[in-house]
Amino acid sequence: MLVNQFLLLSAFLFCTGVYGVLARRNAVMVLMSIELMLNAVNINLLTFGVLHGTVSGQVFALFIIAVAAAEVAVGLAIVLLIYRNRSNIDVDDLDLMKG
Amino acid sequence: MLSVLVAQNIAFGIIAAIACISAVRMVTTQNVVHAALYLVAVLASLAAIYILLVAEFVATTQFLVYIGAVMVLFLFGVMLTRAPTTGDSRLTGDHWPIGLGVAVMLAGVLTYVVLDFFGSDQLPNDPIVFDTADVGDSIFSTYLVPFEAVSVLLLAALIGAIVLVRKD
Q1: Which residues of chain B are within 8 Å of residue A86 when distances are taken between CB atoms?
Q2: Chain B: residue nearest A20 by CA?
Q3: What percent of chain B has pLDDT above 70?
Q4: Tens of pLDDT, residues B55-97
Q5: Which of A3, A14, A92, A94 has the most beta carbons within 10 angstroms of its beta carbon?
């Protein structure tokens, strides 16, 4: 298998996640897109782990999965807080710090 | 050996197609629950890709943590925030062309760099297989300090989430 096919799949998924983060208004959808980007990075780590014959890629992929789980928990807590205060979760409406 | 490689490539093609189509649908659909289901499809295909990359333990963890736990969290989030689950164009903002432009440019740069640097490099035909014991050995020797840091991070995130949404 080519190295490129995995890296290009990863790049495509990452860019899809970037589009989701920038274009979506619903905060839960933004969090889902961030998950997509983190998973795309995992493909890269595992590919380079296989390419260089080391176990470090798998270890770092596991670390990323753990950090992503923590990020989702805190992120959804923040989204729930926003919903409780403003009764919608539209990220375009969160312009309190706009000059 | 050659037939195995062909089989791997066919499997990669099918899985990658499922992952890409589901990812694009995930960021374009107008229904939050559908988006969550498309995310499940993406994560499951990525678990299959991890198996192609001889990382069985990571694939298992992907299934348990993402498709098991994180998706339940997302569905809880969707339900608790009462986001519109029927067709509603407000899911995508008015400035989506900017996002599309950024994503396309980033994709162009990444594709150019990857193709330029790796060309037609091949992954090793019989890669070194690291089983779960090897991964565990590495985590608990070389990466012991990062592992403990991740443990503390998870604890802090758990307590932080509870403190944030506590009603008092």
Answers
A1: none
A2: B27
A3: 94
A4: 999 999 999 999 988 999 888 888 888 755 554 557 777 888 9
A5: A14
Domains and CATH numbers, chain A: 3-91 (1.10.287.3510)
| CATH architecture for the domain at B2-94 | Up-down Bundle (1.20)
Quick one: how far is CA B164 from the chain centroid?
A: 26
Chain B CA closest to residue A69? B70
- The residues, any chain, with a CB within 8 Å of residue B82's CB and separated by 6 or more, are A83
3-state secondary structure of B1: coil
Spatial distance between the Cα atoms of B28 and A16, rounded to a whole number of angstroms: 10
Average pLDDT over residues A22-50: 92
To the nearest whole angstrom, how far is the Cα of A96 from the nearest Cα of chain B? 18
> Which of A4, A53, A59 comes nearest B115 by C-beta?
A4
- Res. B113 pLDDT band, cuts 50 70 90: very high
Q: What interface predicted TM-score (ipTM) does this complex get?
A: 0.91
